[in-house]
Amino acid sequence: MSNERAQGLLLDRLINSPLQHASQSVFKDMTSYEALCKEAQKEPELFWSRLAQEHLQWDHPFSHVLDKSHAPFYRWFDDGALNASVNCLDRHLGTECEHKVAIHFETVDGKVTSVTYRTLYERVCQLANALKERGVEKGDRVLIYLPMGDEGVVAMLACARIGAIHVVVFAGFSAIALHERLQDTGAVAVITANVQCRSGRELPLKAGVDDAIALGGCEHVGTILVYERTATAWPRQEGRDFSYAELVSQQPTECAPVSVSAEHPLFILYTSGSTGKPKGVVHTTAGYLLWAKLTMLWSYDIQPSDVFWCTADIGWITGHTYVTYGPLAAGATQVIMEGVPLYPDASRVWKTIQRHAVTTFYTAPTLIRALIKAAAQEDVYAPESYDLSSLRLLSSVGEPIDATAWRWFYEHVGHGRCPYVDTFFQTETGGHVITPIPGVTPLVPGSCTLPLPGMDVVIVDEAGEPRPWGQGGLLVIASPWPAMARTLWRDDERYRQSYFPEELGGTLYLAGDGAVRDEDTGYFRITGRIDDVLNVSGHRLGTTEIESALSRLDHAVAEVAVVGQPDPSTGEAVCAFVVLKKSDYGEEVARQIAQELRQQVARDISPIAKPKFIRFGSNLPKTRSGKVMRRLLRSFAQGEKEAQDISTLEDPSVLDHFSVIY
Ligand code: WT7
């Protein structure tokens, strides 16, 4: 799309939102954006090679750029060597960045600690030394199970410093989920906290690690390092468990970084797929880090004077890339918040922006929807009641943002003077894929607009053939890029099958989302997952994972099917259709079983996966060949009955039993 065309055709729909203080920006206008896209298209290897040389600090330069010989297992900058923590920390020492604040950390009770790059460096070195003392070596896996805070960032970088591979598990995940990840990765150490402080309560965390280990088969865990968030006592096993005070505080504040190959795994991050077992997505060092830094410059126009606030937890890819690696590689100042932004109430968000003079606010549509609701209730929750004039850029990720919420955010929070950057990406892509360039790409409410330079995004049909604009299809990325996931941990075959399916020719990366390009602008609109993956408040959940958790209540449950249902606050909600073993139960029993089912899911996966709606019936609707008719269940859950689907049912009345919601 040319700029003139977009502007000529769509003046009424497109919003040109200039960016303040953009004198140093990489992109001046759409022409410079298009020029970079062309450069990437024409000579991709030269393009990426130039950027990798310009933006990363190498211990040993690379001589080859892309190795395709084992496609789809690509290798980038293969013979180069570097260290990710050096690129995020050491490289800023001796510059004006050294004594600049890297992190303003705000606890749930409003206490703020400001950590400079120098202090962060020293804390990372101390923790890295402690891990070394415990025998952790390059290539070992270290599991991080920490509440949101600066300590999590320190832990990730300490692993990177010694070449250990970190595996961050969101602290909201259960002991069972933790156990699965401990076993799958064979982690030798765990970094956790005694408790986490959330929503006015202290919740034990170390005890969860003990529960996970008690499930068996975790003899490889030789060290558990416990950060004492509060004075609360925690269960200790001598010789294995250590407090920070014992093991970390006395360590030297220097630790020689381990230089690793560009393709050395930096981390494994688990995410849900369409089958039961979560996928251990592997990212490597150089390509991932390059994109983390570049997207800070391109999508956020990050400047030395910026104060960046991304509300994501480090347990997700957004936290990895836009809390830890991106902001630090770019030398930015950022805000990290303990607990949830909405506790004690919605005013915390506005107060935080005001207090730290946040310039760049990156959050999730689900939080925006909650803020809209709160703002309508009382003035103290309304953004207008605060001085938010420091803001220059707004952004969101995780789910489609509807045009109404987009406009509210743009007008009430940004006062029409902050570009809204709707970023589309995934755990597997490492960083942003489709996103407007702030101040440059004309915006359309609810659209993530166009791919970043170097991202070869195409919409294809089921056979891998490109679809014309205006016609929906599968979102694929047709050329490799440095930040792409390299494999699934110890499961190359599943990686190939999940992301490079033979039906599409075996070379296209299949994102798992449907998408369509606007007929006039060519802008992308993401239409949602095409597989059995749900998106609840921006959290990715596998329906089969939830189904197996529910089936584990096997004294009561005969059969289950889980589908997603559109929800005004969480985007999508989990809806479970359950057939009980006993057919003669009353309402009281049903209610009690529904409660047990929810507890079961919270225990097996996480409270975020609990079904909002549970429906009991005597049989699941099935095709004559015995397949559960999910599409029918989805439309039934939404209150629609599709005549066409029902006609293939042997007994159309099976659905009526599911009418009551628990
Ligand atoms: C899935 C990836 C929380 C970090 C990003 C999520 C959906 C993500 C958008 C967006 C519409 C989006 C997709 C994608 N998604 N961003 N801007 N518009 N949908 O990472 O947990 O790996 O989930 O989130 O369905 O496939 P993730």
Automatic annotation (TrEMBL):
UniProt cross-references to InterPro entries, sorted A to Z: Ac_CoA_lig, ACAS_N, AMP-bd_C, AMP-bd_C_sf, AMP-binding_CS, AMP-dep_synth/lig_dom, ANL_N_sf
- One matching Pfam family, short form? AMP-binding
Enzyme class (EC, first level)? ligase
Please list the residue ranges annotated as the AMP-dependent synthetase/ligase domain: 99-482
AMP-binding enzyme C-terminal domain ranges (all copies) = 545-627
**EC numbers, comma separated:** 6.2.1.1
Q: What is the name of this protein?
A: Acetate--CoA ligase
Superkingdom field: Bacteria
Q: Which family does it belong to?
A: Belongs to the ATP-dependent AMP-binding enzyme family.
Record key words, sorted: Acetylation, ATP-binding, Ligase, Nucleotide-binding
Instruction: List the source organism.
Output: Saccharibacter floricola DSM 15669
Q: Which residues form a coiled coil?
A: none
**Acetyl-coenzyme A synthetase N-terminal domain spans which residues?**
33-88
